[in-house]
Each structure stands twice: as structure tokens, then as C-alpha cells.
Amino acid sequence: MQHSTELPPTAQPAPAPHDPAARPVTGRPAHTRQALADTEPGIPAPVLAAAAGIRKAMLVPVVTALAIGTLFVAVYLAAFHAPSARHQPLGIATSDTVAARTELALNSASPNAYTFYRYKDAEAARWAITHDRVPAVLVANGRHLRLLAAGAQGPSTIAGLAAAVNEAVGHPVPVDDVRPLVAGDARGLSAFYAAFGVVLAGFLFAVSSYQIAPRLPLTARIASMAAFAVASGIVVALVAHTAMNALPASFFIVALLVGLLAWASAAATGVLLRLFGPVGMPVASVVLLILGNATSGGILPATFLPSWLSPLAQVLSPAAAIRGLRGAAYFHDAHVIGSLLTLAAWVVGSLALQYVLDRLAARRASVPVPAPVITGGR
Q: Three-state secondary structure along 312-377?
């Protein structure tokens, strides 16, 4: 009698679940499809699973960078390739005859380029200049004329006004600088450089924060922003105020304005990332780094900007910070209160919007998903 032993059937591997989002790959070896997975060891599997395909990974950075670069070039060239004044303040403290003749000549040469302010004497003109009411005043010195000016407004601004006045009166007019720049700020650009660096740092802070912890609680994010803002204000004040004497204001005012600008930049970038997701980074770079710095008044006053750009100088945070820094450094704290209020509004508004967005997301996540209803008979 023969005994037969039946072996159990070999277990067949379970078929892989079908992924409806997976793209069929035909005619391509497996190593081609995984080429991007091995370039950086240690990437978590969920990150790799959510990675874009090769075509998208190649094209999207090109389109995004090209769009931002083109916009940067277009905005800065439009603003500064051939700047011309629009309602630039100019004071006059002369006789009515000389004042009328000068205003007529300036208006004829450049209509709508200047807004004129009359002062009774040189003392009133000097007060207006040193409190940033006007950058320069044409005053009568006996039978001669001279131009009182604030060199702290920037060499380009004063040189342009002096050239226009010389042409209007028909002969060179001597310039008396009643508010000169300090030696550490020879070109009057220190406030612009400080603000630009802080805005860039705030942008990078927010981007890295959201990349590391996109679901960080708002309270922890506020604490992180506050630490960044305090550190930024102290470091920039130490460098620009103490070490280089480039911003001759009080240490506290410089640190406060710079710290609020850092916080406003980080908070605004964060809420744009929260609103627009991956598109938030280029949106924030356009709003803060391109439009914000182009309209800041750091290179030329807002009165030299095109009409479609100049309104932004009144509301964006970089312009507010530069107005405050210059006012504190050279013009008896002019504009400091307004700058602080504008920067604080950016911080509070951005954080409030972030709070609302977080609450809405939490509410959506807590709504139970209804079970599917099965209908039909046997």
C-alpha cells in the first residue's frame, strides 16, 4: 500500500492594493521611476509619497523663479529707471514776487512735480526742515537767495531739488545743510539696509518655521516669533547704532522699530503661507521683498514713485519702519508713533487672521463624516 503525502498549497502573495491615483508606467525601467528617491537618504516615506513627478519637479521651480525674477526687474525698473518727482514738498520763504516767479517756473518745467509751502522767515523754514515737514526751503538772504536743506533726506533728493531751483531762478543758489547725515551713514541708506535685512530674515524665519512644524500651535508660534523679534531688534541695534553709528537714534527706539518689523514680516509671511499653501512663499516674496522694499522710501522718497506704487508706501511695513528710523535718527522723532502703530497693526492683524484660520480648520476637522447610505434590494 502506498501512502501519498499531500503538500499544502503554496501561499500566493496578496495582490497589491490598486492605487487609483497612480500613473501607469510603460516602457520605463524601475530605476528611472525611483531616481529622485535616493538622492537624499533618510527622507520619510510620506514625504516621498507626496513628492511631485519628474516633469512637475522640473517645470514648477523654473516657472516660479522666472515669474518672481521678472516681477522684481519690472517693479524696480519702473520705479527707479527714470524717477521724477510727483508733488514733492518744497518750501519758499521769500517775497511774494520771488515766490510766485519761482513756483511758476517750476510748474512750467515739471507740472505737478512740486507742492509748495510758504514760510515767513528762515527760522520757520529751519524748524520745518528739521522736523521733516519739507526737505528744503528756498529763503531770501537779503538780496540773495539760498536753499536750506536736510542732507539726511539723501544726496539724490537734495541734488535734484537744488538743480530744479537753480534752473527756476536762473542762477546757482548756495545750499546750506541744516540736518546733515552722520559719518556712519554717508549715503543715507543705513535705514534701508537694516530694514531690507530684517524683512528678508523675517521671511526666511516664517518659511523655515512652517517647513519644520506646519502644525505648530499658534501660542508656540507666537512665542517663537517674539523671541526672533526681540533678538533681531537687539542685534541690529547693536550693529547699526552702537558699533557703526549708522542710525543715530536711541538704542531703544532702533531695537523697538526693528523688532516690530521683524515680527510683522514673519507674521505676514506666515499667514500668507497659511492662506495659500505652497503658493504662499512666492506671494510673500512679492509682497514683502519686492513691493515692500521698492516702496519703502529707502532709495528715493515715495514722491518719486509711479502713481500705481506710491500708495503702498503708506501701508506696507518696510516703509513704516524706515520712516520711523529716519525720523528718530534725524528729525526729532518725527513719524515714530505712526510707524509703531502701523507695524503693530501688521503684527496683530496677521496673528488674528492666523487664529481665525486655525479655528476654522479645527472646526472642519471635528465635523464627523456621515456614513454612506446603502440603498437597493437583493
A: HHHCCHHHHHHHHHHHHHHCCCCCHHHHHHHHHHHHHHHHHHHHHHHHHHHHHHHCCCCCCCCCCC
Give Cα 171 to chain centroid, integer Å.
42
Compare 253 and 278 and report the one with higher pLDDT: 253
Average the pLDDT over 336-346 and give the result: 98
DSSP secondary structure string for all residues of 103-140: HHHHHHHSTTSEEEEE-SSHHHHHHHHHTTS-SEEEEE
Please name the residues in contact with 117: beta carbons below 8 A apart, sequence gap of 6 or more: 89, 90, 91, 92, 128, 133, 134, 137
Nearest in space to 315 (alpha carbons), one of 282, 281, 349, 269: 349
pLDDT at 134 over 50: yes
pLDDT at 164 over 80: yes
For the residues of 29-54, what is the DSSP string, one character each? -HHHHTTTTTSSTT--HHHHHTPPPH
332: left (phi over 0), alpha (psi -120 to 50) or beta: left
CA distance 231 to 234: 5
pTM: 0.82
Cα angle 73, 74, 75 (rounded to 5 degrees) comes to 95
